[in-house]
Amino acid sequence: MGRLFITGANGFVGRLVVEHLAKTQDRTLITASRTSFSESSGIESYPAPDLNETSQWENFPDDVETIIHLASRAHVMGEKADQALPAYRKVNVEGTRGLLEMAGQKKIKRLIYLSSIKAVGESSEPGHPLSENSPLRPEDPYGISKQEAEALIQSEAPKQGLSWTIIRPPMMYGPGMKGNLPALANLVKKPWPLPFGGIRNNRRSLLATENLLDFLALCLRESQTTENQIFHLADPAPLSTRELIEHLAKAQNLSPKLLPVPPFILKTMLSLLGKKDVADRLLGSLEISWQKAREELDWEPPHQTSSALHRTFASSA
What we know:
single chain, alpha/beta, Rossmann fold, seven-stranded parallel β-sheet, two-stranded parallel ribbon, globular
């Protein structure tokens, strides 16, 4: 079998993917990242370009069969929207275009692309989880760039002789993560109660990196049945904000301290403070259907959210 080329190998998800594939795949991995990646038996390092500066992938290795494309521009706090979209497009769209062109030159067979549910939208209506057939309504620059990268792959990959698989996850979590979920886990540790006890009816999907890794392994095994397909992934069941906080507390051997403040009061207060986006994340729903993977591939997420959160946050207790 040909070698696996993994972009974004030094990122939060990339490191976990490399670690998992090094243990489970009997073929050489090539880890592409801007910072050096420690080489070992079966792992080679490739100095990836700075996609903020160029979309050209030079001195690309030979004998690569499959690209797992994880590299992406991360969110930058305080960035203005008119500046953000061109920057996201530079990395997420043009960087992908350059990779597709190089893949065609090197006769690579397959691309697996980690997109985002934000390519579809930021919310779901009660009882109507976002599926692969949902209309695409990205709202922020990141989501727009991810949707445009997906469209580029679907139109250009066949011209380069590549089959493709696109994966759309919600917020992912696992060892080494940063961002909103660790911040919420730290809030749970504080001695004062949190005013989120009344947020019982929203539904938000998460994805444990362990479940992503399981699906990636399936994609590599079942290349024909997953080619030229889009899949939504999520943990077995969505959570309300209250349930999420209860799980985070349990993972850290704590008892949740929650005040049952009515959601409409929270929404009003946060909006007055200029935190409408925070209110939307805390109070709104973003539920994802992964039934296509079940029906077409007989895949179900093997790890429950409660146990995966425990493995992620127990060490910080």
